[in-house]
Every structure is written in structure tokens, then in C-alpha cells.
Design goal:
With 351 residues, this protein is of the alpha+beta class. The chain is built from ten helices and five strands. It is rod-shaped and about 120 Å long.
Amino acid sequence: MPYVWLVWLFYYVLEPASGQTSIGKWVEMLIGLCIFLALYFLGYWLEGKRKLWVIAALTVLAMVLIPRNWGASVFFVYAAAFAGFGGETELAIAVLLVLEACASIMMWVFHLPWGLWVSMSFLIAAIGAMNIQHAKRIAANARLRLAHEEIEHLAKTAERERIARDLHDVLGHTLSVIILKSELASRLADKDTQRAIQEIRDVERISREALAEVRSALKGYRAAGLDAEIAQARATLETAGIKVQASASGRLELSSAQEGVLALVIREAVTNILRHSQATECNLRLLQSDGVCTLEVADNGCGSNGVEGEGIKGMRQRVETLGGNLQRTNAPGTTLTITLPRTTINPNGVQ
């Protein structure tokens, strides 16, 4: 495009080409043309307000050459074209007004044709205004690209965090159960061979389930439901010698996302009880009232007032994403209370 816009130079060569022109004048015009071309391409290379130096130089060149060749007035038009890219809109408009004033003064001082003055004034204003809008559009598109890149970056970060939470929730719990059952099988190996064999088979089964769950997590879904998770939690805790009381009231209709989050919360809570609590009892309650589904997991262990680990943080993020709330109390024992907006269905099927 820089080469295409050089077509306006026909104004510059029109006056000397239309009459008897001396060799000396042609040399002057050629020198002026070389200076113009250097400034013109420099204007494309410079960015921002540095273009103002090129605009100023083109203006001076036009004012020097107009007494010798009225076609040099076209340099004002090129300066106006650069003005749109020379800074803020207010600054660009001010530059255009200065160019209009300089062109008018030169036309008046050297008594150039009124038609030339009208055409140059129009071109300065029109091309300057169009390039101001073009520059604004380029800047807006650049900001839009940056916004899209930022959104893409945030989406990738969120997806990595989701996968990390999924793997933590799945593998953290499962590996704890495998360790527990392996230790139990080791202690039973000399005392109760059949029980040890059963525990080892459970380790194999749990390992296979863990592999399936990891694959499901990477696909973005889990096959096991909330009931299965509660049953698994009871079996795991009882294997560790922890007495479990589980209760649920009413009929719940949860979305797959809500059910998945509650299942993961139960899994993480059981993992923490096994690892840290030293508890002997665990109460698990699932309630519904006043449009809210409440899950409570409480143990009688030692509790903890320390900084929340990654597991608790992951649970909190998942619950809050669905508009819920997670609270943890630590005396006595540890109690996790999760509330989620529930969806109930009446006998007529109306939500």
C-alpha cells in the first residue's frame, strides 16, 4: 500500500511537465522528490508520536517547494495521512488544523489557484479524518486481540486447575484407600490368610476403578453417582475401624454437576479423615430444606486450625462455582458443611 499511495505524486510532476522547465528546476524537483520519498517511507517505519517529526518535515518541505512548484502542496496531504497515526485523536485533529492553516497561508501568499486550495483543503481534511478512524479501528482490533488472548489464557489456566483438582480428588482418595488396605493385608498375612487375600483383591479392584475414574475425569465426567460414593465412603471408613452414621431426608433432584461436586466433597472429606483426623466416628448427613441442599460430614477427631490444604481449596472452588457455600469448623473434631441450591420435583413434574 505505501507504493500505491504514491499515485498522488502526479500533482508534483504535473506543473513542471506541463511547460518549459529548465534542467536546474528538474534537478531541484528531483532532489525534493528524493527527500520526500525518504521522509515518506520513514513515516511508515516510525510508530506513535515519532511520526510527528515526519509530519513536520513534510510540511516544511512543502512550504519550501511550493514557490517553485505548486504541486508540492500535495505533501500537505501526505502529512495529513500520517497525522491519523501520530497519537491521540485530539492531537491528530490539532495537526490537521495546523496543516490546513499552513496550506491556506501558502495558497494566499503565492496566489495559487482557488481550485487548488479547495481540493488540497478537502483532501487534507478527508484523508486525515479517514486515517484517524482507521487508526482507531486498528487500535480497537489490537485491544480485542489482546482480550481474546487473555480470555484464552484464562480458559487454559482454569482447565488446568480443573484437571488438577479432578486428579487430586480421584487419586488422593483412592491411593489412601489402597495404602490402608495394603497395610491391613500385611498385618493379616500371618493371622488370617483368607482376609488378607480378600483385602488384596479389594486393592486390585480399587486400582482398576481408579484407572477408570482417571479416564472419566479426563473426559470431563464421572459415572458413579452420589449413592455409590456414600456407600464407598462408608465401606472405606469402616475398613479403617471408624464407625459411620449416614442419613438422608427427603427426595433430592440434583443436577449432574451438583451431584458430582457433592460426591467429590465426600471423597475428599473421607480422605482427610483417614489421613489426619485420628477419628473413631463419622457422621454423614444429607438434608433438604428451604430450597437448599445441605451436606454435613463430621468426625470426632483431633481437628485442625491450620491453613487449608489444596483439597479443601478445591472443594470450596467447586461448591462456590455452583452458587453454594462451604464452611469448616474444627472444635470438637472437624465438621464440613456444604450448602447448594437444590432442585426438587413435585408429583406433577413441575420444577
